[in-house]
Write a structure and sequence with these properties.
The complex is a heterodimer of chains A (about 400) and B (about 325).
Chain A: H1 13-21, H2 26-40, H3 48-68, E1 101-104, E2 108-111, E3 116-118, E4 131-134, E5 148-152, E6 157-162, H4 175-192, E7 197-199, E8 205-207, E9 222-224, E10 229-231, E11 237-242, H5 253-270, E12 277-279, H6 280-283, E13 285-286, E14 291-292, H7 318-321, H8 329-334, H9 341-357, H10 361-377, H11 379-384
Helix pairs in contact in A: 1-2, 9-10
Chain B: E1 10-15, E2 19-26, E3 29-36, E4 38-43, H1 46-55, E5 59-62, E6 65-69, H2 72-80, E7 85-86, E8 88-89, E9 92-93, H3 100-112, E10 119-125, H4 137-149, E11 152-158, H5 159-167, E12 175-180, E13 185-191, E14 194-201, H6 205-216, H7 220-229, H8 240-266, E15 277-282, H9 291-302, E16 308-313, H10 320-332
Parallel strand pairs in B: 1-10, 10-11, 12-15, 15-16
Antiparallel strand pairs in B: 1-2, 2-3, 4-6, 4-7, 5-6, 8-9, 12-13, 13-14
């Protein structure tokens, strides 16, 4: 068989190998190596003069730069006045314990931590393609880039939702009603391809949209972690919904238990960091008025600690710090008139950045909002810009 | 109807002369299922048909015959004192076997189930045999078309390269992978996942079986069972079948090592790897005890153009190519 790709040259191979060795997942590692081979096969490298005179010097230099140097600022992006670099606190993450599939048939799956997933309502949706990750470049560091700098396929996190559906009293006499409501709810979710999982009032975990597909759960949304910024999370995050109302009674014990074991399983399966397990209210935005919290489910009261997660209400919001979105009274009211520590810190941070830049806060936010608009305008994001 | 096993993720399919193996991923685990790529025909009777139906034995009724295919075919061949028939020969679809297309389709369908929307499958294809005019285009196109008609988006991968992708992740997919199958031995070498060379040798398990059968006068089925159940390399065989098997095994090993040596010697632009590379063996024909040692000795004596760090068996010799096809599908589809 004639090889159509070229292996890296002897000078660049050690760096390619070094970088490949840092990739734990064999699939990702192969993907990286194949991409490196594609780069090696690019026409410019075929040119004899180029290869002879410069390759031995330029390839190692280029690879060194590719590995160590952040991407440069495009010339057409207006550089924001230098301010103090933004520090995004990422609390130390505790990896999820190993959870594995123990038994399965066409009706259910049972996992080693006791999780039982019902498969009666499983349905397909649009397959999850590779999704873009944008540079987490709060202005003032070195400028901003609108291009995606990386793509991934596996889920990067979990967004927790509440169904905000009708709640019958949780008492024995209502069992029949509770079952009927729960069932019709899951059927509704299936029809809308709205979430990957639904946990009903009895703590039963239903898989609805299969994990390999995107669910329509967080269309207009933003989150970021230490790797970068995710925009419109239907592809990049899994959606888990609880049959509950945010401002209703707290979740019952069965639901909390199920949510805990389901979260453990998903975190173990996809190596999801705890700080990427967040609520819909934390990620939802309204691009038309640049306000956060277009959806307000779990704007408060989500039991992070009870399901083995850090208090992620403390995390800053990329929608605010990177893209200039604002909070308003409507959202504050939905959040029970309590502002999360992360939201307060994010708003404060933007004010400080504006002050350091010597521009009014409104002007500063406008610059950030323009960056978000440029991202939305890119073709890739238009494809993913489906309304929930 | 069997439910689809494909939930939008990719499947890996090793389409071998002897067996068809399906690989799929469940979380971090790989799961495998296989079927013999063989069939046997028995005369039709209502009683036989109803017994097969009752016992869940995969079969089809065609004209005045019942065709039993897949894993049960070997058992029925033994019962009926007849030879099993194959849908493929020497690594590719057997154009002389009129039932090959419909039967291999049924065998594959029994493993994969129905395709769901956006189902993807990566299947193995052999390399062209050394010194042969044959090519694999017809085989590859036919399998691709068949899977396409079943609803899959397809990709093919060289079988030897699939062994590398399935087994050499810790070496950054650098090394030599060999699949000792029924019809062919497929050999590939890759450097940092990029295939550098590949070829096949048309002497493999079936060659050993048929050659030994003609020398001993035994039926091929019996030779095959003796090979799979009792044969091992220990240098001394009191049984004539074992002696003959040993001779033909050595011939296969010699052919592969010679082919590898020649291919390495004649490949232009072989990358300078700068360190010894591993060589991994897979496939049902490589299973007898002592095979690895015998192959290792032959490789050391051959003084190949590249240094070999180790000759080792695949962790799962029967499933390595299917796993590699799955890995390629997940990474590239």
């Amino acid at each position: 068989m004639r090889a159509t790709l070229k292996p890296p040259s002897p000078t660049s191979a050690p760096l390619v190998e070094w970088r490949a060795n840092r990739i734990e997942d064999p699939i990702e590692r192969l993907r990286f190596l194949r991409e490196a081979a594609v780069h090696s096969s690019e026409p410019m490298l075929e040119r004899r003069w180029f290869r002879r005179k410069h390759l031995r010097v330029l390839v190692p230099l280029a690879l060194w730069a590719w590995v160590f140097i952040p991407a440069p600022v495009p010339s057409n992006v207006r550089k924001v006045v230098t301010v103090v670099p933004v520090q995004r606190p990422m609390p130390g993450d505790t990896p999820a314990a190993a959870v594995w599939l123990v038994e399965q048939n066409s009706n259910f799956e049972i996992f080693s931590n006791g999780l039982r997933v019902e498969k009666e309502f499983v349905t397909a949706n649009r397959a999850r393609g590779s999704y873009a990750i944008f540079r987490r470049s709060e202005p003032g560091v070195t400028g901003s880039r609108e291009e995606a700098f990386d793509t991934r396929r596996d889920p990067a996190g979990i967004v927790f939702h509440s169904t905000e559906s009708h709640q019958a009293p949780f008492e024995p006499a209502e069992t029949r009603n509770l079952k009927r409501i729960g069932r019709s709810l899951v059927e509704f979710v299936k029809g809308k391809r709205a979430y990957h999982y639904v946990i009903d009032r009895f703590g039963r975990v239903y898989r609805v949209v299969q994990e390999t597909d995107a669910a329509n759960h967080a269309g207009r949304s933003i989150w970021s972690d230490d790797r970068g910024t995710f925009v419109y999370l239907n592809d990049s995050f899994l959606g888990v919904a609880l049959e509950a109302q945010t401002d209703g009674d707290a979740l019952n014990t069965a639901q909390v238990h199920s949510l805990r074991v389901l979260t453990e399983m998903l975190r173990s399966k996809y190596r999801i960091p705890g700080y990427n397990c967040i609520t819909h209210a934390q990620v939802s935005v309204n691009p038309s008025n640049h306000r956060i919290g277009y959806h307000t489910d779990w704007a408060f009261g989500f039991p992070f600690s009870e399901i083995g997660l850090p208090d992620n209400y403390r995390l800053p919001l990329a929608s605010v710090t990177s893209f200039g979105f604002e909070s308003d009274d409507v959202f504050l009211n939905a959040a029970g008139n309590r502002q999360w520590p992360g939201l307060s810190a994010s708003l404060e941070q933007v004010r400080n950045q504006a002050m350091a830049a010597g521009v009014p806060a409104a002007e500063y936010r406008k610059q950030l909002q323009q960056r978000f608009q440029r991202i939305l305008n890119s073709a890739a994001m238009r494809e993913r810009g489906e309304e929930q | 109807m069997k439910q689809s096993k494909n939930s939008g993720s990719a499947l890996g399919l090793d389409v071998g002369t002897s067996r068809v193996v399906l690989a799929q991923r469940a979380g971090d685990e790989y799961q495998y299922e296989s079927q013999l790529n063989a069939f046997v025909t028995i005369p039709f009777s209502k009683l036989t048909a109803s017994v097969l139906e009752k016992e869940g034995v995969p079969h089809t009724i065609q004209g005045g015959e019942i065709i039993v295919h897949g894993n049960e075919s070997e058992k029925f061949a033994e019962l009926m004192n007849t030879e099993i028939r194959r849908t493929m020969t020497r690594g590719t679809l057997d154009a002389k076997e009129p039932e090959s297309l419909s039967l291999i389709r049924q065998i594959i369908a029994s493993l994969t189930g129905d395709a769901s929307p956006d189902s993807k499958i990566c299947f193995t294809v052999p390399a062209a045999p050394l010194g042969s005019e044959e090519n694999v285009t017809y085989h590859e196109s036919t399998v691709r078309q068949m899977l396409g008609e079943m609803g899959y988006r397809t990709k093919s991968i060289n079988e030897g390269l699939a062994v590398i992708y399935g087994e050499l992740e810790n070496n950054n997919y650098t090394g030599i992978g060999i699949s000792f199958g029924g019809g062919l031995c497929n050999v590939a070498m890759a450097y940092l996942s990029v295939p550098v060379l590949s070829f096949s040798v048309a002497k493999a398990g079936d060659y050993i079986d048929s050659s030994a059968a003609s020398v001993t006068g035994e039926r091929v089925n019996r030779i095959r069972m003796a090979k799979e159940e009792t044969f091992h390399f220990n240098g001394f065989h009191a049984d004539k079948i074992q002696q003959v098997l040993s001779v033909y095994y050595d011939e296969v090993i010699t052919s592969v090592v010679t082919g590898l040596k020649d291919a390495l010697a004649t490949t232009r632009n072989l990358p300078r790897i700068g360190k010894p590379i591993p060589l991994v063996l897979s496939g049902g024909t490589a299973l007898p005890e002592g095979f690895r040692d015998r192959f290792d000795k032959a490789v050391r004596e051959a003084e190949l153009r590249v240094q070999i760090s180790e000759v080792r068996m695949a962790a799962n010799p029967l499933n390595a190519a299917a796993k590699g096809a799955l890995v390629a599908g997940l990474a590239e589809m």
